[in-house]
User: Which sequence fits this backbone?
């Protein structure tokens, strides 16, 4: 997976996307604008982060899951 | 076997929706729909670690910034594993200092190759020929190019086609032979006798009623 390593931790680009979701619900377009990543990478990355339980999808938008919040907390310390 | 033969016979056509796919790539799992809203150039190459393909990947990387300015993404494909793609991309960077920035599909099960008619058994039963599919933001196929295994693609022509497609979409015109951005464009021919007569009075540069050009 491109955004989640085999050990379940987000990669650099995955972490960028998760950080972009810290402020709340965002669309892939908003995450792409904020991270500077191409939109196609963000769309597939958010799908992977959701499958890994690090993000939750709500309609067309995404937000951090409790596991994602915990992961970001761990990686920033 | 019959099913594969049938799939090989099914070739996508210009104007049709691009066949949907979900594929393993060097940038993770990608779906065609991930590219919605952008132009996409999906291109196949015969195999990793081969000379002509290496020159093409370097050339595609060189035009990538120009493509991005035009809202175009690149997506490569061959019937190789993702490990092979990664090793080749790393080797190209090590030997030539060129980093391939776009994803490459690892189409080991030939799912995408068959859907797009990229395998031409007369050339090779196992490798994809050099195909270029230009797909618009609505995911419709707008151009198809096929090159044989022995001929590397012309990047100027690929950029020229993108410019021509975007110009015709924006201005409802057509582009003449050897057109380049800045050249005069062709005004669509009239459909009725009345329109043909009016056409000659509209101030275009006309050879006759059916061939008129204008500056954009």
Assistant:
């Amino acid at each position: 997976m491109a955004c989640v390593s085999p050990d379940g931790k987000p990669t650099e680009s995955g972490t960028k996307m998760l950080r972009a979701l810290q402020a709340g619900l965002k669309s892939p377009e908003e995450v792409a604008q904020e991270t500077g990543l191409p939109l196609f990478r963000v769309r597939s990355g958010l799908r992977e982060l959701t499958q890994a339980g690090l993000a939750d999808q709500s309609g067309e938008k995404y937000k951090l899951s409790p596991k994602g919040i915990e992961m970001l907390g761990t990686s920033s310390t | 076997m019959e099913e594969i033969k049938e799939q090989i016979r099914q070739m996508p056509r210009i104007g049709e929706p691009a066949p949907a796919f979900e594929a393993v790539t060097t940038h993770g799992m990608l779906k065609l729909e991930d590219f919605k809203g952008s132009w996409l150039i999906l291109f196949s190459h015969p195999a990793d670690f081969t000379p002509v393909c290496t020159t093409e990947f370097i050339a595609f990387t060189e035009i990538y910034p120009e493509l991005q300015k035009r809202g175009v993404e690149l997506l490569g494909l061959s019937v190789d594993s993702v490990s092979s793609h990664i090793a080749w991309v790393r080797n190209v960077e090590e030997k030539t200092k060129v980093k391939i920035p776009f994803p490459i599909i690892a189409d080991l099960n030939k799912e995408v190759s068959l859907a797009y008619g990229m395998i031409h058994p007369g050339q090779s039963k196992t490798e994809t020929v050099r195909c270029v599919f230009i797909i618009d933001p609505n995911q419709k196929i707008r151009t198809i190019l096929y090159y044989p295994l022995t001929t590397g693609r012309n990047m100027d022509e690929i950029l020229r086609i993108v410019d021509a497609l975007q110009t015709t979409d924006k201005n409802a015109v057509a582009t003449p032979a050897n057109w380049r951005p800045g050249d005069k464009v062709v005004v669509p021919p009239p459909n009725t006798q009345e329109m043909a007569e009016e056409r000659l009075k509209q101030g275009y540069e006309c050879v006759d009623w059916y061939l008129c050009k204008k500056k954009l």
